[in-house]
Each structure stands twice: as C-alpha cells, then as structure tokens.
From TrEMBL:
GO terms for molecular function: hydrolase activity. Residues 32-272 form the Glycosyl hydrolase family 95 N-terminal domain. Keywords: Hydrolase, Signal. Residues 295-700 form the Glycosyl hydrolase family 95 catalytic domain. Pfam families: Glyco_hyd_65N_2 (PF14498), Glyco_hydro_95_C (PF21307), Glyco_hydro_95_cat (PF22124). InterPro entries: 6-hairpin_glycosidase_sf, 6hp_glycosidase-like_sf, AFCA-like_C, Alpha-L-fucosidase, GH95_cat, GH95_N_dom. It comes from Sphingobacterium micropteri. This is Glycoside hydrolase family 95 protein. Residues 1-26 form the signal peptide.
C-alpha cells in the first residue's frame, strides 16, 4: 500500500511538471473556425492592437475589412454639466423625503430632459473609420473555403480555391508596428489580380490615390450641440512581389502579382480629452513609413511575440469532445444541448484575447463595443456606460493575469477626477469629483439620457473600485500613492452629499436610483438610499480609510469618513425573503429587470459571503431566482459571477450555457452569443464577453473573502481539467489540476510574500510546506482585510431556511516573494 501511495504521488508530481507541455498543446487549438464567409458583421472576425481595430469578413470575391481607430468619436472637447440645477436637486430630495415619489420623478425628468434644449444631455458616439475593400473578379465561384481567427497568435486567416489555385489571406493588427497588415498569396505565380478601395460613411471626407498609396481623410460627426472636430487620415500602401500596381481614379488595380502585402495606418489629431492639436497625416505617415522597413515575417513574429507575452500567462484545459471538430458557429448553435467543454475554454480565452486587443497601456479604455464598431451612430453610442458595462469590461483584468490592460481605465479615471470636479461643484455644491452613468472620449460627467436613466451620481464610486482591486492583486504602494487623490476625491464627494433619511437614523444619497429600474408604475425610479448606493459608498469609504492608513496621511479626514460610514443603512431582507433593492421593501417577485444592481455587494464586491453572511446569501439567491436566468447578454454574464459566488457550480454552468447560445430576436428579448463569439445584448455589446470570462475564473478560484478558495463552484459538467496562471488577491498566482471533481495538484507562486490562506474542500489533504489548520471566522487576513458589515435587518415576514454551506477547511502557510509552492492532494 505504501508503494502504491508513493507511485501515486510520483505520478501526480509528474502531472505538475509536465502540465505546461500538455496545456500548450491545448492552446494550439484556440481557433474560431468557419467553412463559409461572414454573412454580416456579427459573423466577421475581430482583430485589434487597442488603438486600431478591424473586422475581417473573409469573402473571396469582395473582401471587406471594416476599420476602427480608438479616438474617432463625434463631437469636440467640453463637459455637459448644466448650470443652476442645485436647487432643483435639493427640491427632488425634499419631495422624496415627503414621500412624493411621482412628483420627485417628474421634477427629475423636467430638470434633466432626455433632449435638453441647451444640448447638454449629450454623450458622443464612437464612430467607424470606414472599410478597406478588395474585389477579386471571378472569385465568387470558390471551393474548399476555410477561415479562422487564431487567438493563440492574434491572426485572422482565410483560404479557398478558384480554378485549382489556392488563395490565402492573413490579417493582423500589429502590436509592435501599430499598423494593420494584410498579406495575400496564391499557389500559382501571377495569379493575384484584384482592386483595392477605401470607403467611409463620414460626410466630411476626401479620398485620393497617389502612385503608391491610398489616402482617406475626414472629420468626425457633429451630434446634438457638439461639432465634430476629430480629424483623421488613413493610408493604405500595397507592396507587390511581381505584377503591376495601377492607379484607377481613387482606387488601385493589382495585375498578375505573386504576393501583395497591404499596410494600413490611421492617425488622428487627438492628444487628450481637451487637446486636438495633433497632425493626423504626419502621425499616420510616420507610423506607416516605419512599419514598411520591417520585413513581413519579422513583423508577424514580433507581433505574435508581444501579444503572447500577455496571452500565454494563462492556460485553461477543460477537456474536449467531438464538438470541437465542428465549426464555431455550429458549436454555438448546439452548445445548450451538446457536451462541449472546449468551447468554454475557447470562450474564456477569447475574452482575454478581446481585452488584450482593445485595452493596451497608453490607449483608451475598451468602450461598449471594445474598439469594434461599423456605424456612425452605434447602439447606445458605443460610449462608456458606467452603471455596469465599463466596469464589467475590466472584471477579467486582474484574475486572468492581464493587469496591464487595466491601465487605460486608470488613465480615464485620472481625467474624470478633474472633469468631475465641475459636476460635483456645480450640481451638488460638494468637494471632490463626481460623474453619473455615462462618459465618452471627452470625459463628460453630467447627466446623460435624462432624469430617469441619468440621475445616478455613483459612476465614479464604482469605477474607483478598480483602483483598489488592482492594489489588492499587486500590492504596489507606489500605485496607491499615485491614485490616492482619486480615492480621496470620491470620499469627499459622498461625505458632502450624504443626508439623513426620513427616519433620521441613516445617511443616504438622495436623489439617486437603482440603475434603470423602477419601483412604482409610470417609470418612477428616483429614490433615496438604494441598496446599491449604500454598498458602493461602503466600499468607497473603506477604500479611502485603508489607503489613508497605508500611506499614513489624512487621519482627521479618515475619522470623519469612519463616522459617516457607521451611519450607512445595512442591507435588508424583505417580505419575499429577497435582498431589498431599495431602502423600503418595494421589490416585486414578478420583476425580471436586466439590472440586479443591489447584488453588487455579492459580486464584484465582497460584502456578502456565504461563510460570513448566510442570511444575506440566501436572500441574494432568492433575488436571483425571482429575476430569472434569461436576459440580455451582459446580464447573464453578471449572473455567471453571482452563481459562482453563491457556490452553485451547476447553476453557474447553466448560465454559461444560456450565454453561449444564439440570441433571440434583435430587440433585446434574450441575449447570447453571435457566431463570431461576440456578446449579444442584442445587439452587440462586448461587456458580456468579459463578464462571462471573469465568471469562468470565479468558478475555479475566489479570493475576495480573506482566503483563496480553490474550486469553489466547479460544475458537474467539468469534472476534469487544469488551469495555470490565474491571479488572486495578495499577489499569488495559481496553477492546479483536478480530476473526478477533486483537486489533484496545486502550485502557488508568491509575488509579494506573506501568509497564504487557502479554503479547500473538507476531504482535501495537501502534502507539503507545513500547512497549519486555522479556525473559521478570523476577520483579519495577512494580505486582504475583510470588512465587517452590519447585520441585515430581517423582515418579520421573512421565512429564511438557512443557506447550506459546503464542508470546507482553512489552511495557512508562510511564503516568500518569488518562491513557488507545489502540493499534491493525498486524498
């Protein structure tokens, strides 16, 4: 028996040692594949390097490569903060205190109309550059068609045959040369004959062709009261091997070439949200000329190496099945009823691919569509909606080991903390900074979309959480010091605007709302002391207090903030055993609204824990059950994370199945996933991709609760697998394998040192490193403090049955920075 155990240990250790090879092999299959060209934009394949984006259709006869540049937005610099609204906000607050909700909503709508006469109710749309067109006469009768997006090297490829000749296309948005490169080849010499053209829907534009280059210049659109002032210029330079390049008006004809490489460069005049003094032509030409000096093979290798320096940090293998041999569109069609664990892995990594491709340091944050948009007036303007969507874009950043991708969001926060001082001062007579539920390239901070949707002064509260979470994952005091003023500014704002509620007991934000939902007929949503507001301020205040303590500054202010923190309303359990959405018990069991904002405290915050707050946990479960599973794409993505936090792996997987199914209708009846794996609200929003990616990570590891919970919500459908490179709070990286739904091996890399506390299934018996059992209920953790919350106020009508916890245990061991610790489960 002893020899058998020793052999078992050796085999498990071998699994740890050789897992990287196995996982690398699995990574080779990370491709979206299709056997027909894209019929529309939702079947085209996205490539991007954060600044430049493209959708590749793969049509043999008429290829379209739709192009974006991250700073082509309508409008011009300027904020949308209205004058003389403070008294009206005070009046709305007074009406709410008097119980006159309908009158308060009417005044909110009148004060902030959906179409304001002064034009200040704007948010500018993100706009397309246009499209590159490649027309191949005679190629409409093709065979052996194949196209793919290889997210292992960030390259889109198309191949097909016409009259026995093999044609290949390779497209990528270079991370190193900052251009989009298209390479066209054929199996026969002199077989490439086609035309090259550019088009744009922008009204103000000019298209010219020189001997070597196509140039398309233009100006972004004018919307509402804002004049379009983003000037842009795009350039296409063909480089031929053999054949001829012929100017044909404002396009090119290629005749009898062996190979053609197209270099696409785009520049704008945008420097900063308040500076449009750049030279778009000079910028684009400088980038293009530099890129042309790099040979194609070297350019491709450099691009893939840079991309893989991020992408290859995390590997995920959930097993495979016969479904993996089918095209991606078919796999999405069949996922709800067919066993396809490899599609979950692909979708997870596709989310990481999209984040790397749309949010690089030094650029703009990923907007509502990342960087991919074909319209001048896209849905919801494709701007930054910060009552959920922008935040969801960045949920995978830390846990999936892409911390650098977070930086554009932090840069935007720096801007907003400046422009937001105007809205704090003018609208609320408050210190600090503030924004509402939308912003754009110009960093607007006023109300957008009128007094029903827009009267929500909490956008900055939610965005600022990303700064604190980044610190918890990476532990850099210098980062905290750099962004401390942003955290302080948020605390000052809420310290100034909190008012006593009608009872005189609690401090609340009024007026506000629970995003986009209502509690009375006639679209009455404006309210005081909503649960989400209280949860957000709870985090804002704790983050500031902790940051001030770490940096040893602002002790008197921290004391004032602590006094206000103690008067925030607790979360409450209502008459339907639900977590209340509002301060009063107004929830309806028939409400299936897509926003379930009061569960922010469950995820992404860590205020509700099954182990610390079983009553609140059960109330959150009930709220989710009442709301239902089917919803918009991003909402189902959020639900994946919630059910993972609720430790229900099978329900988590059910939501992944809902998410990874085709959408129903185009009016938002039910979200899902398009054939190109992009999220459907519908229509396309990228947030659902990112939300589901983070939810898959939450199934495998959680670290919000003062410990690292290993395999907290593993579904029955994924009993075998391995993952490496996931990050958790406290600066640890996690590799693990599991089989028969049980942990087999665990490797932990410590980047900061300190104690490592693990939560494990009760039967787990890890061998190594003198682990010490510790008691449940410890509130202080060496790497992440869990803040206590007030006990919930439970309604007398509530009938809680008690949330059933899984049997787990806590173990702890010391680590040193830079060291790696490997364990084998002896069970």
């Amino acid at each position: 028996m002893r020899n058998k155990n020793m052999l078992k240990t050796i085999l498990l250790m071998a699994t740890v040692l050789f897992a990287p090879w196995t996982l690398l092999h699995a990574q080779q299959e990370l491709k979206l594949i299709y056997d027909k060209p894209a019929a529309d934009w939702n079947e085209a394949l996205p490539i991007g390097n954060s600044r430049l984006g493209a959708m590749v259709f793969g049509n043999p006869a008429k290829e379209q490569i739709q192009l974006n540049e991250e700073t082509i937005w309508a409008g011009e610099p300027g904020n949308n903060v209205p004058k003389n609204t403070y008294d009206k906000i005070v009046a709305i607050r007074k009406l709410l205190a008097e119980g006159k909700a309908k009158e308060a909503q009417d005044l909110s709508n009148a004060t902030f109309p959906r179409q304001a006469p002064d034009g200040l109710d704007y948010g500018m749309p993100y706009q397309t550059f246009g499209s590159l067109w490649l027309n191949f006469p005679g190629h409409d009768t093709f065979r052996d068609f194949y196209r793919e997006l290889d997210i292992q090297d960030a390259v889109a490829r198309t191949s097909y045959k016409v009259d026995g000749v093999q044609y290949n296309r390779e497209v990528f948005a270079s991370f190193t040369d900052d251009v989009i490169i298209v390479r066209l080849t054929s199996s026969k010499k002199n077989a490439l004959s086609f035309s090259i053209g550019l088009s744009t829907p922008h009204k103000v534009h000019a298209l010219t062709a020189t001997e070597k280059q196509l140039n398309l210049s233009g100006t972004s659109g004018s919307v509402d009261s804002k004049t379009g002032k983003v000037n842009f210029e795009g350039m296409v330079r063909p480089v031929l091997k053999g054949g001829q390049l012929i100017v044909n008006g404002n396009s090119f004809d290629v005749k009898d070439a062996d190979e053609v490489i197209l270099y696409i460069s785009i520049g704008t005049n945008f420097n900063r949200y308040n500076d449009l003094s750049g030279d778009p032509s000079k910028r684009a030409q400088t980038i293009l000329d530099k890129a042309l000096r790099v040979k194609y093979d070297k350019a491709l290798a450099n691009h893939s190496k840079k991309y893989q320096s991020f992408f290859n940090r995390v590997h995920l293998d959930l097993g495979t099945s016969a479904q993996a041999n089918k095209t991606t569109d078919v796999r999405v069609q069949e996922f709800a009823t067919a066993h396809d664990p490899a599609l979950v892995s692909l979708y997870f990594q596709f989310g990481r691919y999209l984040l790397i491709s749309s949010s690089q340091p030094g650029g703009q944050p990923a907007n509502l569509q990342g960087i991919w948009n074909e319209k001048l007036s896209p849905p919801w303007d494709s701007k930054y909606t910060v009552n959920i969507n922008t935040e969801m874009n960045y949920w995978p950043a830390e846990v999936t080991n892409l911390s650098e991708m977070h930086e554009p969001l932090f840069s935007m926060l720096e801007d907003l903390s400046l422009t937001g001082q105007e809205s704090a001062r003018e609208m609320y007579h408050a210190r600090g900074w503030n924004m509402h539920h939308n912003t754009d390239l110009w960093r607007i901070t006023g109300v957008v979309d009128g007094g029903y949707y827009g009267m929500w002064p909490m956008g900055g509260a939610w965005l600022s959480q990303h700064l604190w979470q980044h610190y918890l994952y990476n532990g850099q005091t210098s980062f905290l010091q750099k962004h401390y003023a942003i955290l302080k500014g948020k605390a000052l704002f809420y310290l100034d605007i909190l008012h006593e509620d009608r009872s005189g007991k609690w401090l609340v934000v009024s007026p506000s709302m629970s995003p986009e939902n209502s509690y009375l007929p006639g679209s009455v949503g404006v309210s005081a002391g909503t649960t989400m507001d209280n949860q957000l301020i709870f985090d804002v205040f704790h983050n500031f207090i902790d940051a001030a303590k770490i940096l040893a500054v602002d002790t008197p202010l921290a004391d004032s903030v602590k006094a206000a923190l103690d008067r925030l309303p607790p979360m409450q359990i209502g008459q339907h055993t639900q977590l209340q959405e509002w301060l009063e018990d107004l929830d309806k069991t028939t409400d299936q609204h897509r926003h379930i904002s009061h569960l922010y405290g469950l995820y992404p915050a860590g205020q509700i824990s099954p182990f610390r707050n079983p009553d609140l946990t059960e109330a959150a479960v009930n709220s989710l059950i009442y709301r239902g599973d089917k919803s918009t794409g991003w909402s189902m993505g959020w639900k994946v994370n919630w059910w993972a936090r609720l430790l229900d792996g099978n329900q988590t997987y059910k939501l992944i199945q809902e998410q990874l199914s085709p959408p129903v209708g185009d009016k938002g009846q039910s979200g899902g996933t398009y054939p190109n794996l992009l999220d459907a609200h519908p229509p396309f929003q990228i947030d659902g991709n990112f939300g589901c990616t983070s939810g898959i990570a939450e199934m495998l590891v959680q670290s919000y609760d003062g410990n690292i919970f290993i395999l907290p919500a593993l579904p029955d459908a994924l009993p075998h697998g391995s993952v490496s490179g996931l990050k958790v709070r406290g600066g640890f990286e996690i590799d693990m394998t599991w089989a028969d739904s049980k942990l087999k091996t665990l490797t932990i890399k410590s980047t900061l040192g300190g104690n490592c506390r693990l939560r494990l299934a009760q039967e787990t018996n890890l061998k190594g490193n003198r682990m010490m059992d510790i008691a449940e209920g410890e509130n202080q953790n060496p790497f992440y403090r869990v803040h206590p919350i007030k006990d919930p106020m439970i309604s007398a009508k509530a009938n809680l049955k008690g949330f059933k916890l899984p049997e787990t245990k806590l173990v702890e061991f010391g680590t040193k920075a830079g060291e790696t610790y490997t364990f084998v489960n002896q069970q």
